[in-house]
Amino acid sequence: MKDVIFLNSHPIQYFAPLYKFMNEYGVKTSAWYCSDESIRGALDKQFGVDVKWDIPLLEGYNYKFFKNYSWKPSQGAGFLGLINLGVIKQLFSSPKSVIVVHGWNYFTHLSVLLLGKILGHTICLRCEMPLNQEMLKTGLKQKLKNFGLKYLILPRVNYCLYIGTQNKNFYKYLGVKESRLIFCPYSVDNKRFTSERINLEPRKSIIKQSLGIPISDKIILYSGKYLQKKRPMDLLAAFHKVNIPNSWLILLGEGELRNEIESYVSNNHLKNVILTGFINQSKVSEFYSICDVFVMCSEIGETWGLSVNEAMNFNVPIILSDLPGSATDLIIDNDNGCIFKTGDISQLSQKLEDVLLNNKLSKKTAPSVFLEQYSYKTIADNLKSITIN
Description:
By secondary structure, this protein is an alpha/beta fold. The chain is built from 17 helices and 15 strands.
């Protein structure tokens, strides 16, 4: 049975718990890292603050950091920001393994994709691209990317790991056969979040009071960076437009649009809006536990939206724009949530009203239906099946 090795740019808060789970589940798993920025703490340009995650990122699995020879060493510096020559050397000396490469956007990652299969490893590509977004992109750059993927990269890959339906459709659009497609869904640590939901249940009123929110008031929650691609201004405008009595909007996050958000709140005299600033992983569950609806209104660039998975663990309805990949797989419209056309503020306002005032959701489908499928266990089972080949 082959070992599984994940190649990542850096330790990622959503992925590290998966590697621990897989080892506990009997799939020997390790990680190769090109940077330690998330461990030592570094400026996150999109958050605009120094970020160091406060959940364990290196526990329960073997890992190795490789020296970065880039003259501009950073995961945020583009393709040449990660040049880890030791990874290439490791390909030659490591026993034949299943190597999962997250994307092709760095020199190191592309090198492994091009060389690994030749050296006898089972190479798996795990990218995020949803076809519905890719079809909206035009121009020479897009054509060159698709050409490079179809004729240079994908023929050198044993398996393509798809995170959801739209991502699977993207691979198939580029000619990948069904036999080379493996479902490895984008997932979060459902066990941790479900446990935190149960533990926080008795404290919900205390948490609301600590934020200055009356216990009986309704809360709309956004979680993410304040970036254009996530369109927090759409939600702010919809909240202002619908004007639901005794309701609050919490914008969980930080980013470059903060000044614009604050100006809108001030100019329109909005009282019930809270901007939290950056909230670390150990605290986000407190906000999920008190919300009455979770909203994501992202555009092109939000390939999936893992905060949707997080929110589902708290049994809250979800309002989601139609472009993120998770909209296709995790939301049944007017059942466990609502889908609206990205950028349509009037439609978003109506969905807020439908959920919070008109109780229009059927709620026939329990969150567990999705969480069981979009789970670490699904990933471990499906990768385990190729370690014996």
